Amino acid sequence: MAGHSKWAQIKRKKAANDLKKGKIVSKYLRLIAAAARAGGSADPAANPSLRNLIEAARDADVPSDNIERLLKRLSGGEEEGTQYEEVVYEGYAPGGVAVIVQALSDNRNRTASEVRHVFNKHGGSLGATGSVSWQFERRGYIWISPNTEAAQEAAIEAGAVDLQEAEEGLEVYTDPQEVYAVASALKAKGFKPENTEITMVPQNTISLSQAEAEKVLKMVEALEELEDVQNVYTNLSLENVSVEA
Q: Under a CB-based contact definition with an 8 Å cutoff, are residues 197 and 54 in contact?
């Protein structure tokens, strides 16, 4: 998992800023509503995907009141007005960097047009489904701070498959199907996961010059600003790149 750490740190800092703007709250409420409809139930006990998203939302400090109000409306049969479906786009950024874009859309044509516009504007190109996803591996991801020996031991005992020590904390990687179980086990031992999610980790990374890397980062930022986009993953290495998170 080496090389993923800096991306993850940037994402956490952006999430902290987005939480203040309400973007993270909106993102998770949209995901929760979609999971409730996809799973056929707004009852977390009967819908594992919904239960996992609620846990992830709480780890991201989404207010419990917002979540409970949404679940109450959905349990009463009240729709959220728009229904979203998951859409994934794949392509390349400048320098041959692979890009995966995950979105929740209520209008596939609009979302595809917006994503394609960003790719074209920033010198990238959209590809067919499966064109770059083979270069990534789905992994569960948990962030714990601070990084202590006790946290590492607890993570290994809980089922972590890899650990990465970072300056500000500990990155825990798991099987994607086990990430929420591992997070729950860590909570039971007194640790508080500050971020729990299923992510896409590149199997190999591409190194670019500072100038070329900045072109890719601008494209990623533009994609992340699209309302329908939930996550953007790339195989760009940031090891020798200066980035303002």
A: no
